[in-house]
Amino acid sequence: MVMAQSLYKLLRERDASLVIDVLAPAWSLPLLERMPEVRQGIELPLTHGELGLGRRRALGHALRGRYDRAIVLPRSLKSALVPWFAGIPRRTGFRGEWRYGLINDMRPFDLKRLDKTVLRFIALGLDAGEPGTGEPGAVADAASGAAGAAALPIPPEPVLRTDAAATARLVERLGLAADAPTVALMPGAEYGPAKQWPPESFSALAARLAGKGANVWILGSAKEAALGEEIRSAANSARVRNLSGETDLVEAVDLLALATAAVSNDSGLMHIAAAVGTHVVAIYGSSTPDFTPPLTHDATVHYRRLDCSPCFARECPLGHLDCLRGIDPATVAASVERRLEAVSNG
C-alpha cells in the first residue's frame, strides 16, 4: 500500500485535478487517510484470496457511474471484477490470469523490465503508447534512443502525513521518554521467518544501543507481541520498550516519524518508516532490495547476496538461514550509530 502511493503521486503530478479513490482492504484504509493524493478509501469487504463473487458484484454496481478509469494493480482475475461490474469505461491492468474483457486497457507484463514492485505500479499510470508502457510501437525515448519499454519515469517517493496532536496524545498514553534519540526496531515479517533477522540478533542490537544511551522501541502487531517481549527481556534494559500490539497502524506511522532511525526486516513497517522520513536500516533475507527496496534515499541496506538468494521462500529451504544469521548485530549497530552521531552533530 505504501509503495502504491508512488503511483498516486505520479498521477496527480500529471493531472492535478484528478480525483483518486482507492479500493482496498479495511486494515489499510486509515493508512490511505495519510496520503494527500487520495480522496477516500473504499472498503473491499473480503479476506485475502476470497472470491466473494456476489459481494464484488454488489460493490461494483454501487460504484456505477462514478469513475472514468480504474487501474487494477494485482494481476489476478478476481481483482478485475469490481471495476468490470462497475462499468468503468477504461480498465487498465497487466496481462495476467485469464481476464480479457474484464481489463480493456491491457499492458504487457515483462519481469525483466519491471524488476521492482514500484515500477509495476507506475507503469500502469502511463497512457497507452507512452514510453515505458512496453507496448509494441511505443514511442522511443528521444534522449537515449532506447526502446519505449526502458523509459519509465523515476518513481516519486512515498510521503505519509503525520498528526502532531495525535502523536502527543500517543506519547503521553504510552509514557514514552524523550530524553534521548530513539531507535525503532521492527522484528516481525508477516510473510514468514525467512524474512526475519533472528530475535537474538535484535536483542543484541537493542542492548548495545540502549547501553549507548538510546531509547529503543520495538514495534509490531499484536501477533508479534511475544516476539517483541522476547527481544526486550533478553536486552535487559529499561531503555528498551516493547510496544508490539499497543498501537494501531496509523499510530505506528506517527511513532516512526519520531524515531531517529528504524531497523527493520523487509516489511510494511519498513516502507512506512521510509515514507515518514526516518533513516531506515533494512535487513533482507529471502527477499531482495532489488525488488522491494525502501523508497527513500535515506537508507542503509544489509543484504548478503548469497548464491541461494533471493529464494522468496517463507521458510529457509536449506534450513540454515545463513542469509540472515550471517548479518552481524555489530555491523547493523554501526549503521545506526553513524546516523545517531550525524544527528547529534547537527
Give a brief outline of the structure.
The chain has two domains: 5-135, Rossmann fold (3-Layer(aba) Sandwich), CATH 3.40.50; 165-344, Glycogen Phosphorylase B (Rossmann fold, 3-Layer(aba) Sandwich), CATH 3.40.50. It is 32% helix and 13% strand.
CATH topology annotation of the largest domain: Rossmann fold
Helicity range of the residues? 25-40%
Low-confidence stretches: 139-149
Alpha carbon gyration radius: 22 Å
Average pLDDT for all residues: 92
Shape: globular
Numbering strands along the chain, what is their spatial order in the largest sheet? 8-7-6-9-10-11
Give the beta-strand count.
11
Strand content: 5-15%
Can you tell me the CATH superfamily of the largest domain? Glycogen Phosphorylase B
SSE order: HEHEHEHEEHHEHEHEHEHEEHH
Task: Give the name of the CATH architecture of the largest domain.
Answer: 3-Layer(aba) Sandwich
